[in-house]
Inverse folding.
């Protein structure tokens, strides 16, 4: 059985709808997932630009190139941090929050 079995119809002005779509896109979430986050009183954050992760990866690589034994320690140290980022942009947690309703 479907987890979400209630439908909500919401009328918005063109400006409200554009703002909703723009805010959802900034977070990397679908409109449905964005609204669910707001309902649970979680303020979705904007997804960082891809360049942020590229710089982070280059920095991590430089640190571990000089000390290969640090590679696994670095990965473990960043795990909670990356999980928080993924959760804030909807890439972790409840798989039903990502994408559209089916």
């Amino acid at each position: 059985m479907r987890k979400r079995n209630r439908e909500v119809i919401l009328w918005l002005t063109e400006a409200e709808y554009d703002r909703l779509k723009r805010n959802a896109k900034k977070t990397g979430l679908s409109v449905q997932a964005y609204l669910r986050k707001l309902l649970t009183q979680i303020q979705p954050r904007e997804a960082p630009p891809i360049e942020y992760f590229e710089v982070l990866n280059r920095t991590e690589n430089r640190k571990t190139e000089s000390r290969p034994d640090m590679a696994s320690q670095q990965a473990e140290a960043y795990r909670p941090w990356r999980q928080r980022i993924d959760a804030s942009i909807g890439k972790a947690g409840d798989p039903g929050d990502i994408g559209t309703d089916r």
